[in-house]
Design goal:
alpha+beta; 5 helices; transmembrane helix; transmembrane; signal; FN3_sf; FN3_dom
Length: 270
C-alpha cells in the first residue's frame, strides 16, 4: 500500500513540474529603475502565468504585484529594491491551473554598479568669448538622493565645429568655459563622472555660438550707399534747377517720335 502511495505522489510531482521553466531571466536597470524580464520556455502554453519572488534575508518572498503576470509582462522592482547597498536576486516560475515549472534564477544584482546611467540634461549658451554650461540628472523614479550622487559631476567633451578640435573638462553642473573664440560654434557632450559605475550613456551634442554668428553685411551696406547716392543726385538736380529743364528735354525727346509718326500717317492719307 505504501509503495502505491509513493508512486502516486511521484506521479503528481512529475506532472506538476512538467511545465517548461522560463528562460533568459535578467534584470534591466536604467537610472535606478529596475525590472525583471524573461521569456517563456519552449512549449509553454499561452495561458501560463508567472510568479516572481525576491530573495530577502536568506528567504524567498513572493511579490504581490508580480504574482500573476502574463507572457511578455515584466516585474517592476524599483520600489522593492530600495536598499542600494544590498545585493539582490530574483526568480520566476510559470504556472497554470494544473501545472507549475521549476524556478529560474536571475544573476546577483548590485544597484550601485549594475544600473545604467542615462544621459544628463544639458543646456549650453554663449557669453561672448565663453560658454555657460548647465548639467543635471535626468528624471527618474529611482531614489533621488542616490541619483543626485551619481550625477554629482560630469565629464564633458568640448568640440569646435569648424575644425573638430576638442578638449575635455570636469564640471560640477554649472561651469563657465572661458577663453574661447568669439562668434564660433562649439558642441558639448556630457556624461556622469561616477567612479562606482562604468555603465553610462553620454548626452547628445549640445551646440551654441560663443557670441552671435557673424553676418555678411556687405550687401546691406552697398544697398544703403546706392540709395544715398541716388537721393543726393536727385537733391542736387532739384537744388540747382536742372530738374525742370531736364524734365522738359526728356518730355521733348518722348514727344518728337510721336509727332514724326503722326506727320507720316497724315502724308500717307493724302
Amino acid at each position: 500500500m505504501m509503495w502505491l502511495l509513493s508512486l502516486l505522489l511521484l506521479h503528481f510531482t512529475l506532472v506538476e513540474c512538467f511545465l517548461p521553466a522560463p528562460i533568459n531571466v535578467s534584470i534591466v536597470s536604467f537610472n535606478l529603475e529596475h525590472s525583471l524580464t524573461w521569456l517563456s520556455g519552449p512549449g509553454t502554453p499561452l495561458n501560463a502565468l508567472y510568479t516572481v519572488q525576491s530573495l530577502n534575508n536568506m528567504s524567498w518572498k513572493t511579490l504581490k504585484h508580480c504574482a500573476s503576470l502574463k507572457t511578455n509582462q515584466a516585474c517592476d522592482l524599483t520600489n522593492t529594491w530600495k536598499d542600494y547597498f544590498h545585493l539582490y536576486r530574483a526568480r520566476v516560475q510559470a504556472t497554470t491551473p494544473s501545472q507549475r515549472s521549476n524556478w529560474t534564477l536571475s544573476e546577483v544584482f548590485d544597484p550601485l554598479t549594475d544600473t545604467t546611467l542615462g544621459p544628463p540634461v544639458v543646456f549650453v549658451r554663449g557669453c561672448g568669448n565663453c560658454l555657460i554650461l548647465n548639467a543635471t540628472h535626468p528624471t527618474s523614479r529611482g531614489t533621488q538622493h542616490l541619483l543626485k550622487l551619481f550625477y554629482m559631476s560630469f565629464t564633458c567633451q568640448v568640440r569646435r565645429t569648424r575644425d573638430g578640435s576638442q578638449f575635455s573638462l570636469t564640471s560640477s553642473g554649472y561651469t563657465v568655459i572661458d577663453y574661447l573664440e568669439p562668434g564660433v560654434e562649439y558642441c558639448i557632450t556630457a556624461s556622469p563622472a561616477m567612479f562606482l559605475n562604468i555603465h553610462s550613456v553620454p548626452s547628445e551634442p549640445h551646440c551654441a555660438f560663443t557670441s552671435p554668428a557673424p553676418t555678411n553685411t556687405v550687401p546691406v551696406v552697398l544697398s544703403v550707399l546706392c540709395f544715398l547716392l541716388v537721393a543726393l543726385f536727385c537733391g542736387f538736380l532739384v537744388y540747382s534747377g536742372l530738374l525742370p529743364r531736364l524734365h522738359g528735354h526728356v518730355l521733348k525727346a518722348l514727344l518728337l517720335p510721336m509727332k514724326s509718326t503722326i506727320y507720316s500717317n497724315t502724308i500717307q492719307l493724302h
